[in-house]
User: Fold these one by one.
Assistant:
Number 1:
Amino acid sequence: MAHRHRNFHRSLNRVAQLAAMLWVVMGMAMADDLHVPASVEAGQAFSIPTEGSGQATFYVIGPDHVIKRGVNLGSEIQIQAADVTAAGMYQVLVCSQACSSARFEVKAAQPAKLSFFLHPSRVPVSTPDSIDATTLVFDRYWNLVLAPAAVDFHITPATGAGTSRKLESHNGIAWMRMDSTAHEGPVQVTAALGSAQEPRVIQQVAAEACGLRMKAVPSGKSVVLETDPVRDCSGNPLPDGTVVSFTKVDEAGKSTVDTPIKKGVARTQFDLKGPAHISVACGVVLGNEVAVNGKL
Amino acid sequence: MKWGLVAAITALTAFLVGIAWVQSGGIAQHAMFSAGNPEEAVQALMSEIQARDYPRAYSALDPSSDIDLETFTQDVAGSDSSLRTYSSLQTADISPLHATADEAVVRVRMTWSSAVGSIDDVRDLHVRREGSVWRVVWPKPAVQNVPPQVVSVNYLRWEVIGRNRSQAWGSQDVDSPKVRITSMNAIARPDRVVIVGEVENEDTVPAYLNVNATLLKADGSPLEEEGSFDMISHVLLPKQVSPYRIDFPGIQIAAVKSVRMDARALLVPASADPVIAVSDQQIVKDGLNRNVLKGELVNQSGRPVNIAQVLAAYYDNSGKVIWVSDGYVDQALMPQVAVPFAVDIPDDIAAKLKNYRVIVNHYSRTSS
Amino acid sequence: MRTLLAIVAFTICWPWALTANAQELPQVHLNAEGLAPRPIEQLTGSSIVRYYALAWQAMGQALESNLSNGVGDAFTGFAKERLVRRVAEQAQAGLHVRIVDHGHQVKALFYSTDGTAMQLTDRAELEIQTFDGNKLISTDNSAHTYMILMTPGADRWYVRDLEEVPAARP
């Protein structure tokens, strides 16, 4: 039902448009042709010649700009650079007794600016295809440069040699993926095109804890538990503040403490009420287990 | 005529005085000071507590109660901006346990209403008869004496500097924390569907997160959407794991084809302090014969935690989360002082759980 | 004679038909086959269709009424600034533009892996009528091709860049 409704409206519109066109054409003087360039570069001034004589109204209708002024037919109409800064299709109209219309394209100027996205801002070490770099190429008027442009990516890790990659943009976009390195620390990636440079820094952080171990030291009626320096499988220390969970099970029940790593180790203390079994975990990674008041 | 007027004025005055006496709680006080049985004594006491007239309630206690007014008031009404201080006594269910001619034990289940729901406080009160009047012997609360000391706090704190709004699109910014739902289990209850599971902060920065779930019908269209509200620890430090529970009241599981989960995390300032230990956890039956997970919370920092919420996840023998329950502790956690807690477990869950894990949410009036 | 009567009748009914159409969202069909480097999720695809249609509706209303207060709900960044400027200048010149939207065939070209940007191309069947005051000075009923950049906001997708290109472009 809705489909028939829409078709009905489309038919109405088409016939009405035909009526309007007939109205414009019938009894009006023939309009002269307009000669405009097929395309110009953004920010480039140019002129449009006109034919005939007498006064007319000149219009330029662009994506972000509208000109309307009176002109003398037969003269050249100057289009200023500031009138054509936005890329896209523009319509030119000259109306005296009838209106002549033409369209021209404004293309983006030379690449001059970059928008650069580097994600994520924190990435675990040694993870393949974990870093994404996407660059959009713009001209100085912030028009997307749709023509291919060569973008350089310079990658400088915290340790080790830097690398470079050159990519060609397609429809204004250049993107790449890369692996994170094995060492934690900042990585700077700079996207460059001509004189435009956009540096970004991401942080490579330790991955999940690996080989988590704790030792238990009895101290009177309690036991002090301390982990070895908590590191990932590449040897990178987990950052301070990462939560480590200690769990003790004895005849009084279960006791747990979630304590953050401080200066690379996690530490806590439990009161002992007889033999106890103690375990440690960091996130979903389990460490070793110890039995106290029995064998260590 | 003259004597009639005098008599009328006298009667009217006596009537008005009587009304004033009743309105000032005279009947309740009379009952309290002339309670003829243990239940009446406890009921009268509860009425005064409900009216927040603690001096009057205290004055009606048995003289053998080894407690001063200030301690009694703190024990009943709370202190240190605890949850109890923001609560009011709604009901008190009284049931006698046993009695002799001169002494009795009465169980009272006080239900306190607070901004986070109702909290039960069950106490067994000793009641003693003196002459013809029964009075409540209020137990002296066990107060742990923590020696004065200086506690150094050098745990990590995170602050966030975000992108300036005036910076252009494409400028560098810090990403939201990466969190992962590590498990999800849809459970059918008699009057609802419940989604339980766990979520981990996989990142190296603290996260404020919410977990939402959308139940989908067989045709893929949404049936209902709900969030975890306070059945989750919203602030997770790096590598911290929190249980979550999302309730869908009135939904039958047969109508649900699938579930879409959504965990949204924000980067927030946070502190790694305080550390709260959860000790001596056990599953027992409480005085009302309910299955509860009880234990003690110990605030290992040097600053009070005003309101603490206990979240417990229960696992079956395959390690799957089969239930999540929570409970607020209506006492403040003073530094180094153990405070008991208990959270309910449904009977059918208690029968099949094999393990459990408790974490503690905390709210303090002043943050560092 | 019948044709003339039909023309008269349709001319009378034309404004009503346009008004009815103006309230409906434009038809948008999205083709996201082979989208890279990130495949599109079903919800995202539905959102893109909806908010792109809303953007065209907002733009049509703004260009016809010369009021740009609804533009910010659908456009952001460069696209918003340009459209607002365009509406202000055409109002100053006494022009307004009516767009009869016959639908959009949209193809998704690029979706960034972090989900922060999507590039699309649109072949739109539009009837664009330009008025100077009440005088119709131009009418154009043809296909128009656009390159679009959309970015996600808090609760919706916005058009960040909208550029008309010659029909030969992808």
Number 2:
Amino acid sequence: MPPDAPNTAGEHVVAPQSAADDVLRVEHIAKRFGPVVALRDLNLHVRKGEVLGLLGDNGAGKSTLMKIICGFQRPDEGQMFLHGESYEPHSVDSARKLGIDAVYQDLALIDELSVFHNMFLNRERVQSPVPFLANRIMRKEAREALDDIGVNIPRLNVPVARLSGGQRQAIAVARTVHSEADILLLDEPLAAMGAKEGALILDLIARIKDEGRVSMIMVLHNYVHVLTACDRVNLIQDGVITLDKATAETSVEELTEIVVEEYRRARRAANAPPATAA
Amino acid sequence: MAVETGRQTPATEPAEKGPGSARALGSGAWTLLKRFLTLREGSVIVITLVTAIYFAATTDRFATVDNFKSLLPYFAPVAILAAGEVYLMINGEIDLSIGAVYLFAPFMFYEFHNGGIPLIAALVLAMVCAMAVGLINGLFTAVVGINSFITTLGMLLTIEGLTLIISHAQPVDTPGTDVAKQTTFASIFGQGIYSQLIWALVIVAVLQVVLSFTRWGLYTVATGGNRLGASEAGIKVRVVIIRNFIICSLCAGIVGVLESVRTSSVQPDPSGANEVLFDAISAAVIGGTLLAGGSGTVVGALIGALFLGILRDGLIIKGVNADYLSFYLGLAIIIAMAANTYVGRVRKRSGVAA
């Protein structure tokens, strides 16, 4: 479906769309923080095994959207559907139980804890009858999980503070995959990473994608990364999705042009008298 | 030993082997030392030993059984208080109100028993009161969002004041104790010579095991290390913090009762209580727990308390003028901490573990 016609404010706002094999649909989501409108009437959908890239400027509402989907925050308005059923997570735990898990920008890794404790954080294996941590089992399973997705961390009992940015990110991703999540939210997985480490993560994402079990929504800044790693790209501007295209049908030039156009429009709006409201 | 003989044999062997095996011995000892220092408690153990050896060498009364017994009350109560405090400090919080709870719990024990409640039941109720103080601290810190330093400073004054009000600032006899003879109750709860030591060792052992081997401990470290990250992982960080405030207060309540049973009287003495509070926090810090949170050890706090006990006891034996005692104690703590930090840096460079 092509993007809708520009509305009166000159924006392309994407209406709710769907596909037969959608795992997640987000419809008319709005979220305010006091006077700040983070999201307004936002719609998106993700198909099974699909990698959806989210682009947008700082403050456009990407992180808020991610936090709403993974149950960390609740929307003021709108609905979400998971596998066709109404989805209203009231906590990170409840979202996770339904198979949605997030890798945050701040990684949610605990520097002081070991690699395997981080991988099992809040999902620890314990012994019975005395509920001591089953460290040996966790270390073994963590090793297997990391091997599965081809992440090479030599020692799993060192604190994660000792690891590089790429290794940390890989652990955070591996943690969510290992948790049997079928929808992964990745908030800037390539932020602050060198080319080599970025390649490691892109590789990891490609491997998970090839398995076809997991769908991913990924916030990215780099258009080239979006085009290589994602099946489809959504552009979020001022709290709404303004572009929804398969990556095969778009290009770095088109994405750049849209963002530059927004900048020009913002400048025109600043110079001209107030436009008619949307 | 095997290395030792290896070094003596090479009389007939080529000369160049000599320095090589000497280096091997040196590096072996160094590895051993490094491994010891990689224990978080390693540095404080060294410093405590050095202090003990100093006093044992310079006085003839330090290394005696009698002195060990007289040292116990200096150290066991502080160890228990510090053990609880460590949990909160790992959380990145602090509890100053333990001084007040230490004062308050035995008075509640007395009041309950005076009101006709049996000894053990009154003791349990007093512990519940102590835990209630922890709960309030936790709620104000984790839910209302007041910095724990401020919450518990307020609580320190409030509960000390409350203690003075209900006691009319008068000491009372501790229930279950008898000046004439030592009752079974009294010998279990503080009057027995090793009673406090056993309580301290048991509490420290339990808390260290919980910290190292259970979810509770893992979540405590996680919450202190990265609170936002821990909550994003789905850990209920508020519950973790409140729980630890309750444990910390409970430890203070236990120590309050143990001390009042030991001395057979309940003293409404806020300045003494504040001194206990500072000792406990010092012991935790000296033991290797970071004020910033994310890292700490209960066993370290026990050794920190032992260090403070040895220092106080040793200085008294050496006949240091009472006026100088605090001065020397303060200096010794700063020097010990500096040495601790230095050893910690060596440990970090060794790169074995955090």
Number 3:
Amino acid sequence: MAAQERTSSDFTVEIKQTLGGESITRCYQCGTCASSCPVAKMTDRYNPREVIRLALLGQRENVLGSDTIWLCASCYQCQERCPQEVEIADVIYALRNIAIREGKVPKIYAEFAATLTRDGRLVSMSKFLEKKRIEYGLPPLKPTGVEAIRKILSATGFDKLPISGMKGEST
Amino acid sequence: MTSYALFLGCTIPARQPHYELSARKAMAKLGVELVDLEGVTCCAPPPVQSIDLETSLIVAAYNICLAEEADLNIVTLCTGCFESLAVANNILKENVMLRTRVNGVLSCLGKEFKGKKEVRHYLQVLLNDVGLNYLRRSVVKPLKSLRVAAFSGCHLLRPSKLLRFDDPERPRIFDTLIEALGAESVWYRNKLKCCGGLLRGYADDVALAIARDKIVNAAHAGADCIATLCPFCFLTLDLGQVLIKSTYKEEYDMPIIHYTELLSLSLGIDPKELALEFHKVKIDKVLDKIGLNLP
């Protein structure tokens, strides 16, 4: 991290330039998102309106370092209802993408990244089910494009993200 | 004969053969050919989008390229796959700048996203290719008196601007297709709300509280079962009831059934062929009610 303090506009610009984050500055804090959110209904650990507000205030460390951004269930209810057409669920992806680049990676996401790189899929096939498929008369699974996906992950720099357990680890 | 490239995704072949079996058998019976493509990968759903959104778009585009090369439209079962692929397909058809960037990466694989094909969900194939009339006529075992709580999952409907599946606040397609089988689609509280599935593994307590709410609401509405389309919703609500029992000391015994299983049963496919043992919450009550019994 740079030593100097960032101003709020720095962080806002950074988010707007990240894929998914473009619409964040349209927010006028009406709270439609929070009242539509199934997660906010269950826990006070998450409130989408607050995440957006803190981000717009330039609270970079606060936003990226907390577990709040990882509590969005990506259900898109907020985004669907936002009167300002803030793409809230996509803004959350942008915030997560920025956090990941700085090595702030929840364990489960490190596992997703490792499985994707290794198998080209997020859920590994089991020997048990491969056998069962034949018993059930299901066609054998066609081979997964593991090499293709590895090439993509390498071309985009995904495989060099600071995620432990993945090839190209830099933490 | 109508043909589609079947995009199975990761979870269904690896964990839910009952979904794959019922989906394949029903489409075969209804005269739609499903083609398995070689070289497909993960669709790059929310877990991958959370890590890097641009990578996920490229992975989705790569998979669409495979269908373009085979000159087939894609059909998905999993609503997560539907969202990843349909969003990518529609964004990349419209956004030239992004498409150029994506194709820059795909060119190392000798691929190019052309935007010539459609990504459809299984329900759209039933509705548009098979047709409601033909579907109704094909039902040999109407699911009479069965009260079904329809739960499409979030990513069949939202983000509606890019998915264009149905009205996101008042959807009717899924209910209509349930009713075409002779069952009743019952209204229940918070019907369109998330199951919490994507929080499993990160915040299990919150995920389970959301899943519990879903099941309680369906039970209050007097539903005989919840019909799902997404393998994560299925897992969250089916296995979820085992966890609800141990965590909340509550037992709902609410069968969770993929729509394709209801469809197969109504088309007269033998329940013994459907790997129904993969349900944690047994569905015998449902089979009894529609006059089918497992041996």
